[in-house]
Amino acid sequence: MRIRNAVLVALAIGAVMYFGLGLVFPREDLHISVKAEALMCIGGAMDAAHPGECASGFPITNSLVTTIIVDVLLVLTVVFGVRRAQLVPRGFQNFVELVVGTFYDFAVGVDKKNVAKFFPFAATAFLLIILSNLLGLLPGAGSIGMCQPYAHAATAGAEGGHAASVYAGWPLTCGADELLVPYLRAPSADLNMTLALGLISVTLIQYFGLKALGWEYLVRFFNFREGPMFTVIGLIELISEVIRIVSFAFRLFGNIFAGEVVLVVLASLFPYMLPLPFYAFEVFVAAMQAIIFSVLTLVFMSMATQAHGGGHEDAEHGAAAH
Amino acid sequence: MTDEGLRFVAMALAIGLGAIGPGAGIGVVFSGALQAMGRNPEAEGMLRTYMFLGFALAEVPFILSLVFGLLIGFSII
């Protein structure tokens, strides 16, 4: 009973603080950045006119920071998961085996014959994407950051030094001529990241196709043997391979970026309780997009390794072997 | 009508018109998958995989229109 009272009191205090802070610190104008913003520039200076951009040097963007965090988390998970691997798993190893095993069963359902070849990339992409999507949804990922001078044309000359002031205060309260650049941003909400993933995926699809079928694989694109109709179909296949890169990249980027924008817009319209169901939906979308990316990769890879025209024969042969 | 008002109208049109086709497409995908599951419950696992694949493919135009609508609305492009 005392615990329940304590929880209720804490909730009430939290609600009062929430409303009070909302009154004290009113929301500013919406700032939505399509591209990842630079936090600092190695060997260069920030661009004064455009916050979040480097005038020179190598930009360290907020999505790069998050990507490194995701990488470290994944490596640590694997290191601690299988450091003392036992035949009968206990504790954390159990969890790692559960995740990998579940996805492996899923991959077996897509292509039983070649699953050992396709699984590593698909599982890596799955874990990377789901972790980066979820990290972007972490509270504070888009709201805690540094204030960079948002130099309007008039103030740009007056400031001169334009050193980014790390604001030591409440989030979302930068000065009038400053702009909040968050420390963390979902890596999948950066088109560079998703485009890279799409390129790797499509390149691997072609590689597995060439490896499985040899030069015969190219017949599906340049087919001059069976008449003009198949030539046109082959060219359409070739174009659709290129479109797959764009489709991979924009599906992931669009879903995650649009989800973030929806959350930001709803939070600025009415911050209390309204964004909650959408937040839950975004968690679902985060997992869904990771699954979709890896399953599409698996399916395309399995399609690429099946011989053109002789698919039935091959399938029957595979079924007979099992 | 001001420039900003036109932008909002353009955003609403882009998102709203872009939602028509994918809405119908996703409906077709799920209706087909549910019918197939009802007729052949053993195939449910495989069907669920391809159902979500079809969902993802049908959803792409809406996501594209949503992104471009937002870009227009927040005057980024």
Helical run tally of chain B: 2
What integer is the average pLDDT of chain B? 87
Quick one: which chains have the greatest interface? A-B, 22 and 16 residues
Kindly provide the name of the CATH class of chain B. Answer: Mainly Alpha
**How is the largest sheet of chain A built, in terms of strand order?**
1-2
Beta strands of chain A, count: 4
Category by helix and strand content of chain B: mainly alpha
Largest sheet of chain B: none
Q: Tally the helices of chain A: what do you get?
A: 9
- One letter per element, helices H and strands E, the order of chain A comes to HEEHHHEHEHHHH
Roughly how many Å apart are the termini of chain A? 62 Å
- Runs of chain A in which pLDDT lies below 50 for 5 or more consecutive residues are 153-171, 310-322
The unreliable regions of chain B are: none
Question: What general outline of chain B do the C-alpha atoms trace?
Answer: elongated
CATH architecture annotation name of chain B? Up-down Bundle
